[in-house]
Amino acid sequence: MPSPTWIGRWRGRLKGDPLPWLLDDAEPAVRHRVLRELLDRAPDDAAVIEAQAQAMATDPIAAILAAQDPEGWWVRPGGGYSPKYASTVWSLIFLDQLGADGADPRIRTACEYLLQHTAAPNGGLSCVSGAHRPTSSSVLHCLNGNLVRALIGFGWLPDPRVQAALAWEAAAITGEGEIRFTRSTTSGPGFRCSINERLPCGWGAVKAVLALARVPVPERTPAVSRALDAGVEFLLSVDPATARYPMGWGNTEPNRNWFKLGFPSGYIADVLQVMEAVAEAGAGADPRLANAVEWLLDQQDAEGRWRNQYRYSGKMHVDIDRGHGPSRWVTLRACRVLKMVAAA
Predict the structure, then answer these.
(1) Neighbouring-strand partners of residue 199
(2) Would you tell me how many other CB atoms lie within 10 Å of the CB of residue 94?
């Protein structure tokens, strides 16, 4: 358990105390993650075990799992990228973000199914749907990062296919290794992507760094460590509060979605997720985050809570954060980042 003095370093920046609200009975999945990530309770703590069990039995986790086919897929068999955001790819990504139990047989079945149907010849996890075969040209930084992060969270880091996807990500960032880049989709090195007119993609970089940062430090290969350092430097190469990352196709202003705090998170990233990625990578003390921290604090309400401005309403198996009031999920995200920055 953290000391009261240490907790005060981040809670003192809030206009109110949201912890009692985050820990109430309304959202067991939020309570589970708060116990683990804000209060540093151990995985075998009785309250943590109880909260996760309740989370698995209630929505939104229960509704997503109820929609799963016994073979492991959602909506239709195959690669599972579409339809957004109810198919196999997104359901697994969101279940990880909700703190679902990776030991659950349904999730293990889904992870195996996903790896069987998305692993591309170059090692990355491919953006395909239905019966289409995974191709190296359809591996994207954003999707590969999201999926690798989820698979690591569910305990699949030792799997050779996850290791191959990590190796692809590292090589795609640094240009090292034997990865063959194509002009059609992700081109590398850096975070270049044809969807962003072959310019480095800020959204892709965020997802990639979040995946690499989830690898425990002792288990990072030198290539992963170099790629992680390069990713952090890219994300901090502009003021994250401005999100002025390279913009293709004639755009001169950042996509407005950068400034809409949301949950869950698909391929779109917000300013808060840049902060999450940098902090998880161990660079939370970097002074280049200062403006983003102030921007985040300015978004809170008088009670130290944040709203969900990007909710995927009507697109998932179950809506999260109905209405326009404060969001436990986004408030958890904000508090978690403030905690990591304070601890850095």
Answers:
(1) 193
(2) 26
DSSP label at 237?
S
Q: Which amino acid is at 40?
A: D
The span from the CA of 141 to the CA of 189, in Å, is 11
Helix and strand counts by DSSP (H, E) for the chain: 14, 4
Give CA–CA dist 76/131, Å, rounded. 10
As a whole number of angstroms, the distance between CA 159 and CA 163 comes to: 6
CB atoms within 10 A of CB 90: 27
Neighbours of 4 (CB within 10 A): 8
**Max CA pair span of the chain:** 55
Question: How many CB atoms are located within 10 Å of the residue 44 CB?
Answer: 7
Q: Is 0.85 surpassed by the pTM of this model? A: yes
Residue listed under structure tokens 């996903």 = 114
Q: Where in the chain is the domain with CATH 1.50.10?
A: 60-327
**Interatomic CA distance for residues 340 and 213, integer angstroms:** 13
The predicted structure's pLDDT at residue 278: 98
Burial (CB count within 10 angstroms: exposed 0-12, middle 13-18, buried 19+), residue 319 = middle
Whether the CB-CB separation of 23 and 61 falls below 8 Å is answered with no
Helix axes 328-343, 271-278, angle to 10 degrees: 40
The architecture (CATH level 2) of 60-327 comes to Alpha/alpha barrel (1.50)
- pLDDT, tens digit (0-9, with 9 covering 90-100), for 180-212: 656 666 666 789 988 899 899 999 999 999 999
Nearest to 289 by CA among 307, 272, 267: 272
